[in-house]
Amino acid sequence: MTIKGKAYIAGIYEHPTRKADEQTLAQLHAESAMGALADAHLTKDDVDGYFCAGDAPGLGGLSMADYMGLKLRHVDTTDIRDMLARNLENDRWDEVASRCLTCGNCTLVCPTCFCTSVEDHTSLAGDEAERTREWDSCYSVDYSYIHGGSIRPSGRSRYRQWLTHKFGTWYDQFGSSGCVGCGRCIAWCPVGIDVTEELAAIRASEETADGHD
Length: 213
Ligand code: SF4
Ligand code: SF4
Known about the structure:
The protein is mainly alpha-helical. The protein folds into two domains: 1-72, no CATH class; 80-113 and 152-209, no CATH class. The chain has eight helices and four strands. The protein has helices spanning 25-39, 61-68, 80-85, 92-97, 105-109, 155-174, 184-188, 195-209; strands at residues 116-122, 129-135, 145-146, 149-150. A hairpin with a 2-residue loop joins strand 3 and strand 4. The protein is elongated, with a radius of gyration of 23 Å. It binds iron/sulfur cluster (2 copies). One iron/sulfur cluster binds next to helix 7.
């Protein structure tokens, strides 16, 4: 399956009930969702995101996910900016750096990444000069090059920059998270690094260190 298209239908289910005196709206939604999963030979454990029609009860998809007991991929954003700022020396950065190829795929597919560099070209005759702006990535060693060298020479420092900017310092810069929850960085990472897992691991290690669990 490619992720270049917009949507795919994997399973279909038409609820047989036409006059639902005995069933709640939540039951009808849940039975329809479960029917579509069964049609696709999938189970609840295969679901990591849930979207449904706007007539779902309560908070819509969120309430239905809770009602059906779905374990959806998500990020706990509670205090996330400060949580990341407190964990700049967390051992998890070394662990994820041992898997990360610093290929930059995640930054290239992320809809909110905007890093660019500027290239100057001049002709040998000296009568033409051109300055162009090109896409770049915070995973490039040269992206943080200043006089004397790169300030983020290691994979650890570059992965940390990506995650702490996207989920932390974006709040300082733009007043919001830099993540829209599209999941593209997860889908396109060649080694399966998942930002939701990395953020959860950092949060969990902090709670363990504080004796919260
Ligand atoms: S899930 Fe968030 S960080 Fe990943 S590509 Fe989408 S917006 Fe970017
Ligand atoms: S796509 Fe994966 S391996 Fe490549 S830089 Fe991003 S996290 Fe690292």
